[in-house]
UniProtKB/TrEMBL annotation:
CDD domains reported in the protein's UniProt record: LTA_synthase
Pathway(s) where this gene product acts: Cell wall biogenesis; lipoteichoic acid biosynthesis
Upper lineage: Bacteria, Bacillati, Bacillota, Bacilli, Lactobacillales
Protein name: LTA synthase family protein
Residue stretches spanning the membrane: 12-33, 53-71, 78-94, 123-144, 156-174
Domain Sulfatase N-terminal: from-to ranges: 249-528
UniProtKB keywords: Cell membrane, Membrane, Transmembrane, Transmembrane helix
Annotated localization: Cell membrane
Top-level taxonomic group: Bacteria
Gene3D superfamilies, A to Z: Alkaline Phosphatase, subunit A
Membrane topology: Multi-pass membrane protein
Length: 601
């Protein structure tokens, strides 16, 4: 009995409490990953993937130790740690719900995007987020000030623990580096699924999937990569374009937020009219069709990256989830359509009717070389429709006209719209369209949204016909909205949840009237070929690849009018694909030998 009394029960209970907190927090992450299914979460942790679960707990324990040592208090550290877990877990649940993909480490950089968070999650959750943030900041200030009064022995213990956990976290940050011991421990039982991050997180646990998406090289190095190999590729595709004209028409890119045709989905039948009737009136008379989007419900910046650079997300390592934040800002300049056109005497302007910090666009556009970037604070036309919180497409198109009319140089104008961005409910008083199969208020509001977008596009293109200068337009939707029911999503698994509408328009009506399926990284090459403009060597390579593989993303390959889960390439096709892979690696992770060969000019 005397021994029991002398036993350090308080310390023992603290240890038990910390271990319990770590296990519960990891279970909470699993719950958010599995739509709060306790059955799936507990089976993952204690039946199916126990080793991976406790490896995740080990990482969380180190993170907990780092927070507590930094704040100088186990109690305050526990509160701050819990708030962090709740915040990340809720964000993961919401992203899984609306975009069918989990939270990535790079997403945490968006924590200061208050306007975006408010618009995406709604006022109640945004207020909760602000409260959590405020409590967290208060805890940091309060605890650090209090920790300065700790006795010397405890201060040294605190500093030692902080240095140890900091070193361990830095080592964990190199999870994807060769020889990393934590990665080796995961590899004993983990089956990584790089082509589907959703399944990757399901299969390895939230913590395993999160670690897998820590920084990594953009691409794997091709076996034969060298300066000589790159020169061989550039020389082969540097042929001059036949029948190319020397004219410099205005070029307008319009990436329309969530613009797509719901009627293409199985199980969806629209009544009350056709919300895309104005769009079809134009598209059916020009070069148009469907575009393959990388993601469902989101991923705008990745589609924009593909369209402006000509580089495919499919070729990157799976962990390279967002080049706009993870890759492009690391370069002083980056080859893109912007640079190609500036080299030919164009003035280049980006327009985004929202704030400038989304996806680091301000930095990315500077790297691409845009002369101007107009946002919601610098645009002249900022009208909105009814209760829609975003600037309308009509106003954004008027901004384009202002640039076309006042500038004498040929113009490249790149517009990223916002009118049809989520949330969709409560935007409009009258909702004339309905859907059999998924008649939610969000879907009906979305139909009205795309009807307004469709109408604004038609009016915009008709006004272009009156311009004295030839003007070429590429219009496309970046992805489907993440609003469809689970049943509709299940019925349309695969390419159908990734196909949006696109068209190319010439105010001189000289493009082919043709319906095709394509990918956004082909847009510039396709437009130059259709418009009979001089192709760059890189665009000639893209034209050659497009003939063999008209559209592709991870797990979706369009060949000979059919969809496959894996590419089926013969030797000639494989050679072109490898040439493309070589150039993309050269620019994004290699020595950029192709720039010396003027391959993008």
């Amino acid at each position: 009995m005397q021994r029991l009394r002398k036993f350090p029960w308080r310390q023992f209970l603290k240890i038990i409490g910390v271990v319990g907190l770590i296990i519960v927090s990891n279970l909470f992450f699993q719950l958010t990953q599995n739509e709060f299914s306790f059955d799936l979460a507990f089976k993952f942790a204690f039946s199916w993937h126990t080793e991976k679960f406790f490896l995740g707990c080990f990482v969380l324990l180190i993170f907990y130790g780092w927070i507590s040592s930094f704040l100088g208090s186990l109690k305050t550290g526990s509160i701050f740690y819990t708030l962090t877990v709740i915040g990340v877990g809720i964000a993961n649940y919401l992203k899984m719900k609306y975009r069918m993909e989990p939270i990535y480490p790079d997403d945490l950089k968006m924590i200061t995007e208050f306007g975006m968070i408010r618009d995406m999650v709604g006022i109640p959750l945004f207020i909760l987020f602000i409260l959590l943030l405020a409590v967290g900041i208060f805890l940091i200030v309060f605890s650090i000030r209090k920790s300065l009064k700790l006795e010397k022995k405890r201060q040294w213990l605190r500093v030692g623990l902080f240095v140890l956990t900091s070193g361990l976290l830095i080592y964990i940050g190199g999870f994807n580096q060769q020889g990393n011991l934590l990665r080796k421990a995961y590899n004993k039982t983990a089956l990584w699924i790089p082509y589907s991050q959703k399944m990757n997180y399901y299969n390895t646990g939230f913590m395993g999937g999160f670690l897998y998406n820590l920084p990594v090289e953009a691409m794997e190095k091709p076996e034969n990569y060298s300066e000589a190999a790159v020169k061989k590729v550039t020389k082969e595709y540097q042929n001059k374009t036949k029948d190319a004209t020397d004219e410099k028409p205005n070029i307008v890119y319009v990436m329309s937020e969530s613009f797509s045709d719901p009627g293409r989905l199985d199980g969806v039948e629209i009544f009350g009219g056709d919300p895309l009737q104005d769009y079809r009136a134009v598209a059916n008379k020009t070069y148009s069709g469907q575009m393959l989007s990388q993601n469902y419900g989101g991923g705008t910046a990745n589609i924009e990256f593909e369209a402006l650079t000509g580089f495919s997300m499919e070729l990157f390592n799976a962990q390279m989830t967002t080049p706009y934040t993870m890759l492009v800002p690391e370069f002083p300049s980056f080859p893109s359509l912007v640079g190609t056109l500036k080299g030919r005497g164009y003035e280049t302007t980006a327009i985004h009717p929202y704030n400038t910090s989304m996806y680091k666009r301000k930095d990315v556009y500077k790297t691409f070389g845009f002369d101007k970037f107009l946002d919601e604070s610098t645009m002249k036309h900022t009208d909105k429709i009814e209760n829609n919180p975003y600037i309308s497409d009509e106003a954004a198109y008027q901004e384009i006209f202002d640039q076309l009319e006042k500038n004498k140089k040929p113009q490249f104008l790149h517009l990223v719209t916002m009118q049809t961005h989520m949330p969709y409910e409560n935007k409009y008083n009258d909702l004339p369209y309905g859907v059999q199969g998924d008649n939610s208020s969000a879907v009906r509001s979305y139909l009205q949204d795309i009807a307004y977008s469709s109408e604004a596009l038609k009016v915009f293109l008709e006004k272009l016909d009156d311009l004295p200068e030839r003007t070429l337009v590429v219009f496309w939707g970046d992805h489907l909205p993440g609003i469809y029911s689970d049943a509709i999503q299940e019925e349309n698994q695969g390419h159908q949840l990734h196909e949006t509408e696109f068209l190319m328009y010439d105010n001189r009506h000289q493009l082919n009237n043709q319906q095709v399926t394509t990918s956004p990284f082909y847009f510039a090459a396709d437009l130059f070929q259709q418009g009979r403009l001089q192709l760059t060597g890189f665009q000639s390579l893209l034209v050659a690849l497009q003939k063999e593989l008209p559209a592709f993303e991870k797990g979706m390959y369009y060949q000979s009018g059919q969809w496959f889960k894996e590419a089926r390439l013969n030797k000639q096709q494989e050679k072109i694909y490898q040439d493309y892979q070589m150039i993309q690696y050269d620019i994004t992770a290699g020595k950029q030998y192709s720039l010396k060969e003027k391959f993008f000019e």
